[in-house]
Amino acid sequence: MGKFLRQSSVLFIVLVLAVPVLAGYRDIASNAIVNQAVVESEIENLCLTCHESAMMDEKRRKIPGEWRASWHFQNDVSCHNCHGGDPQDAALAMSPERGFVGVPKYQRVPAFCGTCHIGILKNYLASGHGRALMENGSGPNCVTCHGAHNIQKATIDIINENRCSQCHSYDRAKEMKHALSRTEQKIEDIEASITRLKAARVFTEEEDKEVFRTLAEFRTLFHVVDVSLVKDKTDDYLKRLGVIDKKLQGIFSELDSRRNFSVFLLLIFVGMAITGYLLSKTYS
Q: What is the pLDDT of residues 151-175, one digit of tens each?
């Protein structure tokens, strides 16, 4: 019996140690597949091939690099998704028949971006920024604040004195940023919690969707440029985020309980193995 227990304990420990190793190989294989898919998609993208060629002027040659560093790239939004055309056919790459629209005029930029960012477009057009652009062409458009190709994930840091004071005083913008900051911090904390759960191989699709919906609505609030409305809405978002955070903390508590129970079982198993070994020595 002692020999059986010793062999079982060794097998158990080997299996426990093997799990993270196998997980590591799985991650390496998964990353290799993703990286290969990215490489293949770029090889087929004639927009990138042309823009990176010697025939293109220096300013336009920088565009592919800027795009690869962007939030759009990280979310599989490519050239044709915004500019239209066919990136896999040289004859039709810039064809209007394939939806190619090229570079939009200054006043058309919000409609251009609003094809995907529908809620943001609605709030922007109703704001002082949007009205100024539509009425006399002098207001800021999306590119004014976010840039054209190296577009990063939006945070409230985009509201800053250097940017806002180019057109007006920073006072109202500063007040709005202060109201948004608590919600922004809560979102960052929840995203960090979800990242930790994913690292622990916990399925978080439902929580991801809830955060995404809340974050998408929260981002539209940035564009109303209405201090009173922002102050009223942020409390509502904090309540919704609080519900998500409570669910995540419940998952962490359950993980801790399972981990403690696993350690308890392991200690019992080791204790049995030691006891069996001592007994075998006593009666041998």
A: 998 888 889 999 899 888 999 889 8
| pLDDT, tens digit (0-9, with 9 covering 90-100), for 88-134 | 998 888 989 989 999 999 999 999 999 999 989 999 999 999 999 99
* The dihedral formed by the CA atoms of 192, 193, 198 and 200, expressed in degrees to the nearest 10: 120
- The C-alpha angle with vertex 107 and arms to 95 and 228, in degrees rounded to 5, equals 135
The domains of the chain are located at 155-160+173-284
**DSSP code, position 110:** H
Give dist(CA 270, CA 249) in Å, integer.
31
Helices (H), 75-146: 79-83, 109-113, 118-126, 128-136, 142-146
Is the alpha carbon torsion for 87, 88, 94, 99 positive or negative?
Answer: negative
